[in-house]
Amino acid sequence: xxxxxxxxxxxxxxxxxxxxxxxxxxxxxxxxxxxxxxxxxxxxxxxxxxxxxxxxxxxxxxxxxxxxxxxxxxxxxxxxxxxxxxxxxxxxxxxxxxxxxxxxxxxxxxxxxxxxxxxxxxxxxx
Length: 126
Prior knowledge:
Elements: H1 4-12, H2 25-36, H3 41-48, H4 52-59, H5 67-77, H6 81-89, H7 98-108, H8 111-122
Helix pairs in contact: 3-4
């Protein structure tokens, strides 16, 4: 049975931006750029001095993004704001996520085939 205090707590709950998820092209691009540098959410948090959840919220539409926030991510990833804008507009074509696709394929391989793939990939290492 709910008490009057419980009801007051529910009505007083502050609405927060992170309660609402609105995925954006900007957030998805930030995630792609992070992954293109092979950085984890945790690593980015350490580099930028922010929490992992702030990184996740920025990428997944639970945090409002402005130019200042975006630039701080881009600095950590080694991209310019000009490059970022061109990517958003489609002037710079993003390469496919080949690394991620390869990892997915490797995960599905049988151990015997994985040995053959490893031997083949080792031929590319100088």
